[in-house]
Design a protein that fits this description.
The protein is an alpha/beta fold and about 400 residues long. The chain is about 60% helix and about 15% strand. The two termini are about 40 Å apart.
Length: about 400
């Protein structure tokens, strides 16, 4: 009877192997996994990923008599989230191309690693999963170690340490400059607003994607944006100090302050966008560069609305001017969106998409592009199971060696 090909997959989603012992994934084979697990256990005896790797090796030994089996350890990223899922997806695709297994057994050390299971299942049948939990003497010890590990993750570290740090710094600077607790309230309110509307992660992702480096073309543009940003807020602080002594109406004080900030702030934002566009064009990522032109037009439209609104509040413009500004901004937004959509469609249509692999935004493999219907604006995809599906070109989020779609 022919043996089935099986693969035992150990998942290290937060990439402790590379962080602690300098071993990059994937780790393939029993001997390499045994050496890597031993090094990790020696470097950190409390590391659960080492126990997970040992368990994967034990499962390999157990099923080897009945199956043609292999063991691999997939590593993600310290950033977790999309970065980790993308790294694991690429490693798994590479391994399955070399060892086309019929089913997999997934071993992980907890819920964080278990989040990768849908991505693995999109590529191979999963017959079994095993979560390895380190035994502790008391429930309190379990809670302590769980909290300790969670605080190492960037998301929880920002909440536990980053937010109190920002509040303390804002309070110290506010007291030093003699502004009382009002700026502190603004900082906390702004953060809660971003958190409440789910904008925090988007902003952090945008800043991390800037990848500022001396070797990048946009570096000098980013550098020029920094003093302009600082000066714009300094102008706002100066205007606030002046108007606070002259006026009692807080709304008018805020309007004067905002108008001063808006003199230079939009230019710093546009410079950052321009730097990002230059970097993307240099990397031949024209499709992604187009969306940043939308960000630039949105910045200009918001600057126009808030400037006219500030002028109206301080009686330098009529209410009718504000109404006209809002209506004009709506029209400009519609034109900008339509123009950017048309440009993105044209850029996507001009690129060779046939035979490119298609993934969703969390890195799950969807299929391969078999053709492009440029008249209807569709890409035709054949899945791994042979099914044919189509996507609107507007759903394309990224085009490079592969295509990423919002799905």
């Amino acid at each position: 009877m022919k043996k089935k090909k099986a693969i035992v997959i150990c998942v290290d989603r937060d990439d402790d192997l590379r962080e602690k012992v300098g071993i990059s994934g994937p780790v393939i084979g029993r001997e390499d996994n045994l050496k890597a697990a031993s090094k990790l256990a020696l470097a950190d005896p409390e590391e659960p990923d080492a126990n997970t790797m040992f368990e994967a090796i034990r499962i390999l030994d157990k099923i080897q008599n009945e199956n043609e089996a292999q063991v691999v350890t997939l590593t993600g990223s310290r950033k977790l989230g999309y970065a980790a899922d993308k790294a694991i997806s690429e490693q798994l695709d590479s391994i399955l191309s070399q060892f086309p297994a019929e089913f997999a057994i997934v071993v992980s050390d907890g819920a964080s690693d278990a989040e990768i299971l849908p991505i693995i299942q999109s590529r191979i049948k999963v017959n079994s999963t095993k979560i390895v939990i380190m035994k502790q003497a008391k429930e309190l010890e379990k809670t302590y170690f769980v909290l300790l590990e969670k605080l190492k993750e960037p998301y929880y570290a920002r909440l536990a340490f980053g937010v109190p740090a920002v509040i303390l710094l804002a309070w110290v600077f506010s007291e030093y400059l003699g502004y009382g607790l009002k700026p502190l309230g603004i900082v906390i309110g702004a953060y809660l607003l971003l958190k409440g509307f789910g904008l925090e992660e988007s902003l952090l992702s945008s800043f991390s994607n800037l990848r500022i480096s001396f070797e990048r073309i946009g570096f000098m543009v980013y550098l020029a944006a920094i003093p302009i940003l600082v000066i714009s807020f300094w102008l706002g602080i100066q205007e606030y100090s002046l108007r606070s002594q002259m006026l009692v109406d807080p709304v008018k004080i805020a309007a004067y302050t905002l108008r001063s900030i808006l003199l230079l702030l939009p230019w710093s934002i546009i410079l950052v966008i321009a730097g990002k566009v230059l970097d993307l064009l240099h990397e031949n990522r024209k499709y992604e560069a187009v969306k940043y032109t939308m960000y630039a037009s949105t910045t200009a439209i918001l600057w126009f609305i808030f400037t006219v609104a500030s002028d109206w509040v301080v009686a330098d413009a009529y209410f009718s001017d504000f109404v006209v500004a809002v209506m004009a901004s709506i029209a400009l937004s519609f034109v900008s969106i339509s123009a950017v959509r048309s440009i993105r469609m044209a850029v996507a249509s001009s690129m060779k998409l046939e035979n490119k692999e298609v993934f969703n935004e969390i890195g799950a493999y969807i299929g391969k592009i078999m053709g492009v219907d440029r008249r209807r604006g569709l890409i035709l995809v054949q899945t791994a199971l042979g099914h044919k599906i189509s996507f609107d070109m507007e759903s394309i989020a990224k085009i490079d060696e592969k295509v990423v779609v919002r799905y």
